[in-house]
Amino acid sequence: MTREEFEQNFDEILSSWELDDVVFSPQEKELIRKVCMKEISMEQYDNLAQNIA
Length: 53
What we know:
About 70% of the residues lie in helices and about 0% in strands. It is built from three helices and no strands.
């Protein structure tokens, strides 16, 4: 998956799940992308996401 594909899919997911009011910070979105691209594990995501909040 390319970054462009991720962006397109991410926008479609937000729309189809009726998450239009949900706003992710750039850091949160990047972590989600890294999980989708298998650059980090969900465990790593959880640990890193806690530091953002």
